[in-house]
Amino acid sequence: MNESKQPPTMMPGGNVIQPRMVLWSITIVAVGLSLFQLYSAGIQPLGLFYQRSIHLALIMMLAFLMFPAFGPTRKRGVLGWGLDVVFLAGAVLTGGYLVFNLDEIFSRAGFWSDTDILVACIATVTVLEASRRAVGFGMTVIGLLAIVYAFAGPRGELPWLGEWMPGILEHRGYTIDRVAGQLYLGQEGIFGLPLGVAATYIFIFVLFGAFLECTGAGKFFIDMAYAATGRQRGGPAKAAVLASAGMGSISGSAIANVVTTGAFTIPLMKRLGYKAKQAGGIEAAASTGGQIMPPLMGAGAFLIAEYTNTPYLDIVKVSILPAIMYFATVYLFVHIIALKQGMQGLPKDELPQMRQVMKDGWHFLLPLAVLVWLLAMSMSPMRVGYYAVVTMVAVAVIRYALWFFFVAPRQGQPVTASATKNMLSAGVGKLIEGLELGARNAVAVSMACAVAGIIVGVVGLTGLGLKFSSMMLAFSGGNILLALLMVLLASLILGMGLPVTASYIVLIVLVGPALTQEFGIPLLVAHLVVFWYSQDSNVTPPIALAGFAGAAIAGSKPMETSFQAWKFAKGLYLIPLFMVFNPEIIMGGPVPVVIWNGVIAILALGAFAAALEGYLFTRMSWLPRIAITAAICGVFYPNLLTEIAGVVVMIIAIGANWLASKREASATPVSG
């Protein structure tokens, strides 16, 4: 383990066998898109519609080139090529029509021409098809259902369908002109806030993550995690938790995180004694936590900042403690299992040395330090991302140049014209790889945001958000716990067809008003709760996508692995509840209150892990486990006396377990 290999670079669409011409086209469009985004982020910002329309056009062109119409395993054929050409033209028309006719469209201000409506219809169909290929059929179906719902009503295109609607969902119905105008020509549809965030903040940080990935940051994070925890009990599993936190903070996908870090951590966990299903579940739970780990939070931080009008830096600050609590819970689960099964760590000679790891990879910390420093100076996140990317490239170039001119000659590799040419060629190739990878990685999230814009546009047009809030209030009877359970179930159902980002957008538009206005939850807390619950489809059976990815690497049954991931990720369900009932950990308050809430939350999560596993210092009987469960409910209740009582019960139960372990140790005869 002294030398770990570089984690595989996951290229979206890389499993498709493509003709050379298509591969070149993908590279050209992807590099062009990344350069356009860098230009608009750091050199010359563009107007809202110009930025979003050009971004969407290039993203959709990439989607149609990367993902064939009939799937990755079938050749395009004449029909496939014909469809691709038609939709590529639709992608160009979608962006180009707005760019070249924006002033005239604004001057018409609602009195759209026939051409406007025709292009709007073409754009909507093109967006839905691009999302089908890049995100999945579920996303497209939900977008189509939203449009059909807009048409259903006495004045709409589908008046007969409105007659079948339950009373609370009824609305007047809208014509194709009104719906098309809302979705394409307004600021609440396809080109609304979700795509606006994707076309600015999200892309530039995804690009930053791509450069970190293709220059070896994955190896650095994994080696650092092994050096820190490898010798401890269950070391590889703890390394998986830490490496996933590091990779997840810059990655936009829990599944990509599982595949990247899990390729190294899961085999070592199995070797140490973890069952295959446990190893896959631990990696899935840890990788899902990467989506709630600042600074990127799987693109969620930027969306929350925009929706709540809260500075991005503030979102990052308030998200640090909950993220630490989540990873601490997974870490403790891992430690308890290691104790329970009598595991040891890896031998020292199989682990990387922290000094050598830092010597080889310290330069990866420089761009992250620049990023944090510029954010602390309240610079725009888009400009911060630009400087972070530039710093990453500059550091990589300088480090390689120093090695080439000063270190390599001492190792018998002289500096020659041929070697210099090869070095420059390799450098340009790595730059192009980073630019292409960033654009490819952004396709799915941008298309998800575009279709989410369709859903948000329909919700705004029909008033569905207020109707949904009324339904939620009626079904929950004003009980906040039941309301949160409904949000959790809704997020799970949506997560079966939508990626996390889109699931969050749709949910917050539907349930956000009820949580804030009817139940009095602070706006920022409501958004964080919905965002956290939107992650549950990664680890909750029957559709636990990260769990399935972990099972594939571990060689275990997908459903068994998913149940393990669900168990280890319990913080995903409990921490949002604590935010609701103890909002001081997010909103702030008197310092003693904030510290008290932070301490009791971590104690409760640790006690919960022990009660669930039935082990801490030694085995727990059912009585203390039941007592701890009741005490946790008390800690979550926003009453000081109840909280103190819960803490006392947990301390007594944990203390009794510790004393029992000491008695067992003294009663065990020492061999010798």
Structural commentary:
With 672 residues, the chain is mainly α. It contains 29 helices and no strands. The chain has helices at 20-42, 48-66, 77-108, 114-134, 137-151, 159-162, 176-185, 193-214, 217-229, 235-248, 254-272, 276-289, 300-308, 312-340, 354-361, 365-376, 381-407, 417-462, 464-476, 480-495, 500-518, 523-533, 545-554, 558-568, 571-581, 584-587, 591-613, 622-636, 640-667. Helix 2 (48-66) runs antiparallel to helix 3, helix 21 (500-518) runs antiparallel to helix 22 (523-533) and helix 28 packs antiparallel against helix 29 (640-667). The model has no long low-confidence stretch (mean pLDDT 87).
Mean pLDDT: 87
Write down how many β-strands occur, each being a DSSP E stretch of 2 or more residues.
0
- Helix count? 29
Query: Which parts are unreliable, with pLDDT below 50 for 5 consecutive residues or more?
Result: none
The main pleated sheet reads as:
none
Helix content, binned percent? over 70%
Secondary-structure element pattern, one letter each: HHHHHHHHHHHHHHHHHHHHHHHHHHHHH
Quaternary state of this entry equals single chain
The amount of beta strand, in percent, is: under 5%
What is the CA-atom radius of gyration, in angstroms? Answer: 26 Å
Return the structural class. Answer: mainly alpha
Distance between the termini: 34 Å
Q: Write down the overall geometry.
A: globular
Keywords: Cell inner membrane, Cell membrane, Membrane, Transmembrane, Transmembrane helix, Transport
Membrane topology: Multi-pass membrane protein
Domain TRAP C4-dicarboxylate transport system permease DctM subunit: 123-584
Organism: Vreelandella neptunia
